């Protein structure tokens, strides 16, 4: 069957005539489904083929939650230092410069205040693209300042977690942020200001051990990985096979560590619903 075989040899195409498919036109989900990138964005970066929630960053979450995507960013220019002079495969200071240039972000969290369904809201959102969303001194400080802004102005607080945990390059400075952010959330609770925690894929390590699980209402997107140590580490440590779906949002919900799983397209409505119920306000 000749159409399966090359009939003639030596056929070439001039370089200027070659057609390359531009990058970013298509997205392939982990289940193998192919989705048009524009359609994916219109669907809030959720695959319409299999409902897979693609990882997104602070810019996309702010667009989803804030009315008309209008907000004021707090402490936008705060950046990390290298007090320990840490070096692994490269200097931490150089790594920071490289990742800031690559991601156009200052650190792994952004804090913004704006209106959501007409109500003022403070939102802290982590960016996994910045050193795995790791929690260093700047992340802890920006979250603490965001909570202070909520307390000062009596505004509900929303935390969107997406992190691999503590930033190892900052050692004890990083671990201090667990206590720091937890103490600030205790002050928020004393002020009787609502706190909604949204866990997204992945929420692990020190993030899970601190602010991610301290919400008045803890919610998650479908399929998110939520845990302390990752599944591979747990399996290697215990030497046992893990239950099916271990550390997925659905597994965590079933075992009582989450209140709700909320699809991305419902986030704005559901977060505001929970706030209305907590504050005993008329549901908007």
From TrEMBL:
InterPro entries: AcCoA_carboxyl_beta, Acetyl_CoA_COase_Trfase_b_su, ClpP/crotonase-like_dom_sf, COA_CT_N. Pfam families: Carboxyl_trans. One of its GO terms (molecular function) is ATP binding. Residues 24-284 form the CoA carboxyltransferase N-terminal domain. Keywords: ATP-binding, Cytoplasm, Fatty acid biosynthesis, Fatty acid metabolism, Lipid biosynthesis, Lipid metabolism, Nucleotide-binding, Transferase. It comes from the Bacteria. PROSITE patterns: COA_CT_NTER. Its main location: cytoplasm. Belongs to the AccD/PCCB family. Acetyl-CoA carboxylase is a heterohexamer composed of biotin carboxyl carrier protein (AccB), biotin carboxylase (AccC) and two subunits each of ACCase subunit alpha (AccA) and ACCase subunit beta (AccD). Component of the acetyl coenzyme A carboxylase (ACC) complex. Biotin carboxylase (BC) catalyzes the carboxylation of biotin on its carrier protein (BCCP) and then the CO(2) group is transferred by the transcarboxylase to acetyl-CoA to form malonyl-CoA. This is Acetyl-coenzyme A carboxylase carboxyl transferase subunit beta. It comes from Flavobacterium swingsii. The lineage of its organism: Bacteria, Pseudomonadati, Bacteroidota, Flavobacteriia, Flavobacteriales. The gene is accD.
